[in-house]
Design brief:
Blueprint (H helix, E strand, L loop, with lengths): L4 H21 L5 H20 L10 H21 L5 H21 L12 H21 L20 H20 L2
């Protein structure tokens, strides 16, 4: 993305760390964690790669088209999975946003990728969606005084729902930051 290099690198680190945590969640004994962790890891690493400051690396046009194809396939998978779980609709929105951003970067003048200009209406709708998602996710992280029915069960650190929510929140914030720079 374009803009100052320091925030770009912070975004790269945040997204890569989130992707790495999601890879670790794929080892979880909880089936739901494993199911969503792979897609979230792909999203985290893809966002990290797209956020590398333009002063360091300017991918060729074909790389942006490859991103668009990869996340297009991810969007189709999320659409198929959304039949059974509404959470996958968020994955569909994320993958769609990645396809959109990669397309904008591929179509930018000189094919330098960074600093393209998207369609304001589409960018605005995506910004509204992800800003709302960030706010909703942030509220869900607030501690609640709720008793666990049936006693307490010790969860592994990779199975803790608040850590998964924090990762999704950080990816949502990163998506807002990337869309703002579009």
């Amino acid at each position: 993305m374009h803009g100052p290099a320091s925030p770009g690198w912070l975004l790269v680190v945040l997204c890569a760390a989130t992707g790495a945590y999601c890879l670790l969640r794929m080892r979880s004994p909880v089936e739901e964690q494993r199911r969503t962790a792979g897609g979230e890891a792909l999203m985290g690493f893809g966002m990290a790669a797209m956020a590398v400051p333009a002063a360091v690396a300017t991918p060729p046009r074909w790389a942006w088209l490859a991103y668009a194809a990869l996340f297009g396939a991810t969007a189709v998978r999320a659409l198929w999975a959304s039949r059974t779980s509404p959470h996958h609709l968020h994955h569909l929105m994320g993958a769609g946003a990645m396809v959109y951003m990669a397309g904008v970067m591929a179509a930018s003048p000189g094919h330098h990728g960074h600093g393209g200009s998207g369609i304001p209406l589409v960018t605005g709708v995506l910004l509204l969606y992800f800003a709302g998602y960030v706010l909703r996710s942030g509220v869900r992280l607030l501690p609640l005084a709720a008793a666990s029915p049936g006693g307490t069960r010790t969860l592994g650190w990779g199975d803790r729902p608040e850590l998964s929510r924090a990762c999704r929140l950080s990816m949502g914030i990163a998506m807002v930051a990337m869309l703002v720079t579009l």
